[in-house]
Amino acid sequence: MQAVSQMFDILKRPTWPFFKCLRKCHLPRVSVRRCVASGGTPSSQKKKKRAKSREHVGSPSLSWEEKLADTVTPLWRLNYEEQLRRKQDQQQRILLELSNQLTELSGVSCSLPGIPLLPIIPSPVKYHYRNKSTFSINKGVDGNPKTVGFYIGTGKGGNIVCVNGDHLLNIPEKHKLVARYYEDFIRQSPLEPCIVFHDGGHWREVTVRTNAAGNTMAIVYFHPQCLTTEEICTHKDALVEYFTKGPGSVCDVDSLYFQESVMTRCSHQQSPYQLLHGQPHIHEELLGYKFRISADAFFQVNRAAAESLYQTVGELSHTTGSDILLDVCSGTGAIGISMSSRVKKVIGIEIIEQAVEDAKYNAMLNKVSNCEFIVGKAEVVLPKLITSLGSVGGLTAVVNPSRAGLHYRVIKALRNHPCIHRLVYISCKPDGEAMRNFRDLCCSSEQHRKLSGKPFAPRVAVPVDMFPHTLHCELVLVFER
Ligand SMILES: C[S@@+](CC[C@H](N)C(=O)[O-])C[C@H]1O[C@@H](n2cnc3c(N)ncnc32)[C@H](O)[C@@H]1O
């Protein structure tokens, strides 16, 4: 394989001929003010992230690369042992906070016993571990609005700068390569980038997914504004041509997807992921099981650390062969399938349709016949489903929601089912919305009349480092009653 630095050199060559002819027959620029589309306000989470990164923009002694690294991978200056110490301390503080909140809820004057925290499980891979990266488009350090990378600064402060992420420790070379070539492509394209939705423009971020076998999926997000279908087709053709026959072919992209979207995030149902070239899925292997992953399905970003996480969850669940396992927020079925040999039956619930199709396929692929995956919001599906689950055998729940935590109705359904004695909660942000879930699992029934089931109590917690060089880590928290 060509060295990555050599591949970057190719980018120095002049305009690719396809664009020359595209420029000649270039579609007229539309007045963007006329065709403002709905949506497009950045999510509050993104706003907060940008606000956080604001201070870096003003510090003149640091290079742009350092400022970006401090924003995206704030622990990069520390050795890994020190990073783990910090994360362990941080998780300890979160558990102390939880303990204090539970003491307050219980109304007793003395503190409840602390929650045992086991030592953090390190990530087996420390560098370039991400299997999925999303690169934004914005104005670069040199003022070029067609710069692909990660941005620092805030829209409000008017100081956003997009810096390429070539130096970031958590991103693999292949992702960086695709980002560089995508930048080259959009720079040659006659279409403008879409930086702020209501200002018009078309080219948006690119997501790159890779697997351990070296396959690559690229997903290009595009704002259609007022372009016709035929006009969009011309640009899709240019994209395919560039990445299959043009300079971008060095990226060796196995799947090239395109999503026309007028919102920050769109599901496949809202706006289909269009396969422009190659394979529809990417595959990954975990704990000896094979997983097919669709373009919009979730998969843990650090494959090796995900194995540690699922192994830990399997061990802490203490399931038996007669148990039913509820896998709430099941994604492509990784937890349920990897635990399927330990239980009688797995029932997974997941909101993303493609992920559920993947999960069903993955069960077949692995010749696992005791898994059922249901598509829908857990807060809608679980309350109905749980009443049909009888008391024969045990019932164990593993919940792994996104940062937003679980809906109250999910907690209520789990708490009020008398057969659930153990619940394993996996959270990548236990000090956020998940804390509300923990309180609702553990408060007394007098405090919450609708939570009539016996309260749970946290028994043990294990942090698993999924994201070296960042402040984040997964926490596995076991509740029992
Ligand atoms: C952190 S991921 C975990 C996925 C899976 N457990 C795994 O380890 O690969 C969270 C999953 O919850 C799903 N999700 C988010 N909100 C949901 C809801 N209200 N009901 C069901 N699933 C939801 C997401 O689509 C995502 O697949």
UniProtKB/TrEMBL annotation:
<comment type="similarity">
    <text>Belongs to the class I-like SAM-binding methyltransferase superfamily. RNA M5U methyltransferase family.</text>
</comment>
<dbReference type="GO" id="GO:0032259">
    <property type="term" value="P:methylation"/>
</dbReference>
<dbReference type="InterPro" id="IPR025823">
    <property type="entry name" value="TRM2B_chor"/>
</dbReference>
<feature type="region of interest" description="Disordered">
    <location>
        <begin position="37"/>
        <end position="58"/>
    </location>
</feature>
<feature type="binding site">
    <location>
        <position position="400"/>
    </location>
    <ligand>
        <name>S-adenosyl-L-methionine</name>
    </ligand>
</feature>
<feature type="active site" description="Nucleophile">
    <location>
        <position position="428"/>
    </location>
</feature>
<feature type="binding site">
    <location>
        <position position="300"/>
    </location>
    <ligand>
        <name>S-adenosyl-L-methionine</name>
    </ligand>
</feature>
<dbReference type="GO" id="GO:0003723">
    <property type="term" value="F:RNA binding"/>
</dbReference>
<keyword id="KW-0808">Transferase</keyword>
<dbReference type="InterPro" id="IPR029063">
    <property type="entry name" value="SAM-dependent_MTases_sf"/>
</dbReference>
<protein>
    <recommendedName>
        <fullName>tRNA (uracil(54)-C(5))-methyltransferase</fullName>
        <ecNumber>2.1.1.35</ecNumber>
    </recommendedName>
</protein>
<dbReference type="GO" id="GO:0030697">
    <property type="term" value="F:tRNA (uracil(54)-C5)-methyltransferase activity, S-adenosyl methionine-dependent"/>
</dbReference>
<dbReference type="InterPro" id="IPR010280">
    <property type="entry name" value="U5_MeTrfase_fam"/>
</dbReference>
<keyword id="KW-0489">Methyltransferase</keyword>
<dbReference type="InterPro" id="IPR045850">
    <property type="entry name" value="TRM2_met"/>
</dbReference>
<dbReference type="GO" id="GO:0006396">
    <property type="term" value="P:RNA processing"/>
</dbReference>
<feature type="binding site">
    <location>
        <position position="350"/>
    </location>
    <ligand>
        <name>S-adenosyl-L-methionine</name>
    </ligand>
</feature>
<keyword id="KW-0949">S-adenosyl-L-methionine</keyword>
<dbReference type="Pfam" id="PF05958">
    <property type="entry name" value="tRNA_U5-meth_tr"/>
</dbReference>
